[in-house]
Write a structure and sequence with these properties.
Blueprint lengths: L7 H8 L6 E4 L19 E3 L8 E4 L1 H8 L3 H11 L6 E4 L7 H10 L3 E3 L4 H16 L2 E3 L2 E6 L2 E7 L5 H10 L3 E6 L2 E6 L2 E5 L7 E4 L3 E4 H5 L7 E12 L5 H6 L3 E5 L2 E10 L5 H16 L4 H14 L1
Parallel strand pairs: 2-3, 3-4, 4-5, 8-14, 14-16
Antiparallel strand pairs: 1-5, 6-10, 7-8, 7-9, 10-11, 11-14, 12-13, 15-16
């Protein structure tokens, strides 16, 4: 889980322009955390709900109509329930005027109350996306993260084995750089890792002998990409004679990252080997494999059919 606290204030800073957010009441609760500790079971955001309250309650036209339709005592009890417990933030959508009593309770309980002209569904979609990425499990891996043949490929290996030189050659062949040295990976769904570049390193690639290169300035905007799903790891290793099994099926195995298995191929480095072509071939073969085609299995089946005939 991220170490950065997610508060009403940080959420406002991130989306106040896109959602036209404005403060209505409760500014003293701006530092109230949206998620506390390691509690991942609490629902973070949704429409007004009192049975399983969200940490962020979004109120639109329909919810306000429901509140206004309650009797006086029920109305008071419902608003008191809304501004109690683990609630972190209330958002009034569709530019609806907040009830006076709601403004009073927000000030008393120091619970932020924000307003937006956007529809409640749109507000929930945007903020759910934001919370998913900010609160998602993260890790930083050593290597160069590239887009090769349209898929995210992480080039790894020990220092000075040639990752940056390989990345530079791939860029000259039309592939794109995402992050050098310390790409960040976020688990955005139970089976997808998304890789991106820290802002301080964006567009830069360090190559021994040349120093730090600005890839965007050298090759244009199409040579870099902001983020990509991680689909394949290519680990550069020192050359050793492969065993018979590797000669036939390759060195494909799984690497577990943030509880997700990612295919990894070990690619031996030796003089005369065109690593850029081999990485392209690995990416193409992985795409075929994901689409259900296994070249080794096809080869075995073909030999068996010939022998049977």
């Amino acid at each position: 889980m991220t170490s950065r606290p997610v508060t009403a204030d940080s959420l406002y800073d991130a989306y106040h322009e896109r959602l036209k957010l404005r403060w209505l009441a409760g500014p003293h609760g701006a530092g109230r955390p949206v998620l506390e500790g390691e509690d991942t079971e609490t629902s973070l955001i949704g429409h007004l709900n009192f049975i399983h309250p969200h940490r962020i309650q979004v109120i639109g036209h329909a919810e306000l109509d429901y509140l206004h339709g309650l009797g006086k005592n029920s109305y008071e009890d419902t608003l008191a329930l809304l501004f109690s417990g683990e609630i972190a933030l209330v958002i009034i959508a569709e530019d609806q005027p907040p009830p006076r009593r709601m403004l009073e309770l927000a000030e008393q309980k120091k619970i932020p109350l924000l307003g937006t002209p956007k529809g409640s569904e749109r507000a929930i979609d945007h903020l759910s996306y934001y919370l998913t990425h900010v609160l998602a499990a993260k890790t930083v891996l050593h290597g160069v993260f590239m887009e090769v043949m349209g898929i995210g490929v992480l080039l790894t290996g020990k220092s000075s084995i040639g990752k940056s030189e390989l990345a530079l050659e791939l860029i000259t062949r039309g592939h794109r750089l995402i992050a050098d040295d310390a790409p960040e990976f976020v688990r955005i769904t139970p089976d997808i890792l998304q890789g991106q570049c820290p802002e301080a390193l964006r567009d830069f690639l360090e190559v021994r002998g040349l120093g730090v290169l600005n890839i965007r300035a050298m090759f244009g905007d199409t040579s870099v990409k902001r983020q990509k799903y991680l689909r394949l790891i290519v680990q550069l290793t020192e050359f050793q004679e492969p065993d018979e099994a590797d000669r036939f099926t390759g060195s494909r195995r799984m690497e577990r990252i943030l509880e997700i298995d990612v295919p990894e191929i070990r690619l031996p480095v030796a003089p005369g080997r065109n690593l850029a072509v081999l990485v392209e071939a690995a990416a193409r073969n992985h795409i075929l494999y994901r689409n259900g085609y296994d070249a080794a299995k096809d080869f075995v089946d073909r030999q068996r059919n010939l022998m049977e005939r």
